[in-house]
Structure formats: structure tokens, C-alpha cells
Amino acid sequence: MGKTPALTRPRTAARVGAVQALFQAEQAGESPETVIDQFVRHRLGELPGTGGYEEGRVPDAHVKLFGQIVRQAVQKQDQIDGLLASALPEEWPLARLDPVLRALLRAAGAELGMRDGPPVAVVINEYMDVAHGFLHGDEPKMANGLMDALAHVLRPREFEVKQ
Predict the structure, then answer these.
(1) For the residues 60-68, what does the mean pLDDT come to?
(2) Which domains does the chain have, with CATH numbers?
(3) pTM of the predicted model, to two decimals?
């Protein structure tokens, strides 16, 4: 899945893990609970003698946030995918997106849909950090634009002009 960013921020690490878990669930056709369980038991946290992200590990992840993001992304996938499809050009169906980009957008959409989640700017900045670790070329720019489109629909109040 590409080079993973070096992190020591637990919430960012949870987002990295969520993107990886959503990617794995889609590619392997596994349930979110199965993937969450696999990640919690085998991939979150550091193994003794490793420096962190070796072999797909996600050190220092905030496990509760990781689980919330993955569950929300799967529960709300149809809604998130619909919003993404409407934000994409007609000649660019959602299935054409790189599967890692799709997983990242679903995770971001899930978090943007959480009522008690962090502000839009924080969510987008965090997922842009993740995007730069996994994606190349124009994909981070595309991710930014699509997350902004999701945010305008899912959190319109944060874009209202204060008078």
C-alpha cells in the first residue's frame, strides 16, 4: 500500500489503520468486525524490536477511534459512496478510483459524518497526511477536493459565514 508516514500521534495512527483495514476488508471481502479484530490483535501497536510500521503494523494507534471509523465507514458506505459518486465527473465512476484512495475517502467520510468528530479542517488535514503516505501524483489533490465536497454536504454548518 505504499510508504506509510512516520507517526507518533495516536489519532493519526488510528486513521492510517482505518484506511488499511477498509482496504483489506474490500480486497478480501471480509466483514468489518473480522478486520477490526485482526488489526487489534495483530497489527495495532509495536512488536518488540521493531521501529513501528514494519509489515503493515500501526504503532500507537488510538484503538477506540480506529474501531469507530471502520464501523462507521462500513455502516454508512452507501451514503458516502453516493456522495463521492455525485462529486466525481460522470466519466469517472467510483470503481475507477484506486482502492486505497477509495478506502481513505470512506474513512474520511465516516469521520466527517460523526456528530462529535473533530472540525472539518482537522479531519481533512489528518487524512491529507495519510494520503501523502499512500498516494502519489494527482491522487492527494483529488482526495483533498473530494473530502472538501463531502465536508460541505456532511457538515454544512461549519461553512456558514458568521455575521
Answers:
(1) 80
(2) 10-153 (1.10.940.10)
(3) 0.84
